[in-house]
Amino acid sequence: VRGRVLSATGTSLEGTELSLRAVVDPHNFATVGSHSPHLTARPGTDGSFELSGVPPGLYLLSAHVERTTQDGQRRSLTTFFPGTTDLLAAVPIVVGTGTQHEWVDFLVVTE
Fold first, then answer.
1. Gyration radius of the chain's alpha carbons
2. Separation of alpha carbons 44 and 29, rounded Å
3. Are 82 and 73 in contact (CB under 8 A)?
4. Model confidence at 18: pLDDT above 80
5. What is the pLDDT of residues 43-79, one digit of tens each?
6. Sequence-distant (≥ 6) Cβ neighbours of residue 16 within 8 angstroms
7. The pLDDT of residue 23
8. pLDDT for res 86
9. Are 3 and 48 in contact (CB under 8 A)?
């Protein structure tokens, strides 16, 4: 699975962690959690990323960003592919045997 994460506001995506998590129940994305099998990656300076060796299955791709607000507070933001903060609006990625998914691009909420 290859693509780019892009900031909707043009801010740097340095420190962003991408996570590709297996969907246990395709009718209930809420079952996707830290216990689900997953792969992680960090994007390059241009936002490009690659997650390789992904076994066949249904996955949710997310980007996790930590930001410091103007008052010094840490804020965690998670965006799901194709660019939503709502888990139920996420679009799963279907990985088959020997398939490649290129240009999986999405906007990441950073504010």
1. 14
2. 28
3. no
4. yes
5. 988 888 999 888 888 899 999 988 777 888 888 889 9
6. 5, 42, 43, 63, 64, 65, 108
7. 85
8. 92
9. yes
Q: Say which residue the tokens 């990656």 belong to.
A: 41
- Residue-wise over 37-70: b if at least 16 C-beta within 10 A, else e? ebbebebeeebebebeebeeebbbbbbebeeeee
pTM comes to 0.83
Question: What's the gap between Cα 58 and its chain centre?
Answer: 14
Percentage of the chain modeled with pLDDT above 70? 89
Q: How many helices (H) does the chain have, and how many strands (E)?
A: 0, 8
Between 32 and 17, residue with greater pLDDT? 17
Q: What is the dihedral of CA 23, 28, 34, 35, to 10 degrees?
A: -70
7-11: list long-range contacts, CB under 8 Å, 24+ apart. 7/47, 7/107, 7/108, 7/110, 8/83, 8/107, 8/108, 8/109, 8/110, 8/111, 9/110, 9/111, 11/110, 11/111
